[in-house]
Amino acid sequence: MRTIEVTMVHVYLTEGDHHLKSLLACLHDEEKVSGVTTYRGISGFGKSGKIHSSTLLDMSLDLPLVIEFFDEPAKVETILEHLNKKVEPGHIVSWSAKLHLGE
Amino acid sequence: MRTIEVTMVHVYLTEGDHHLKSLLACLHDEEKVSGVTTYRGISGFGKSGKIHSSTLLDMSLDLPLVIEFFDEPAKVETILEHLNKKVEPGHIVSWSAKLHLGE
Amino acid sequence: MRTIEVTMVHVYLTEGDHHLKSLLACLHDEEKVSGVTTYRGISGFGKSGKIHSSTLLDMSLDLPLVIEFFDEPAKVETILEHLNKKVEPGHIVSWSAKLHLGE
Description:
3 copies of one chain form a homotrimer. By secondary structure, chain A is α+β, with helices and mostly antiparallel strands. Chain A has 2 helices and 6 strands.
């Protein structure tokens, strides 16, 4: 099975940031990332220490959002330089992974 | 604390693929993976460039799905050879991790 | 772009464990982890082999939960020693990653 090295990225936001739409558009239209998935967490907290969590009453107020994507390491490095200007420092994590390309 | 090396895997699907049930059954019944979690994303896009996203109106139409599992590296390698025939090329990512086994 | 090495962690629970609240409080109040996100899976299974899945009828019964957090490697090691007493063995996975700190 052929594999290539990729860099996986998690970008941490909250719904209250209202950044998701513009970041996804940027990754899609400008950076041409091959694949992106966004998850909504059910609870979490960041450096503010403020806990964000979902109950039946406030399900969509300010929950954590995570954008996950991967691409070739050099391309991701360029993307992260751009994202870094749009996302708070300390909210982007990356690691090396293998993409499986089929036989 | 004892740890063993494992391989973590993300398999990317969308709900429209209608593959989730058969892949989970395969991982459970045939491959005997020790643990699997499936996430539904709230938005995303793949190589088609088509954006999949959830609104109140079409919450369950064609959202991204991610199957996450881990197991011993050699076992995962065998599993990925099997999965590779059932999943589109370029939709499986893996990386090395440590499983913490307790004291 | 400045980066520092961190350890990423996934802790696997199910809603039926009723551990989430106390684990989050521990990570927040005692361990002072800089950021935590909890995800609810839509299906999954663990060592018991019992499949947990969501349908419209039992959406919130016993779904998989994953706590994701990262911090400096030495701090995470200490945290995992504490968590290990509160979580079933074999339910914690960790890997090395880079945190991007801005320019």
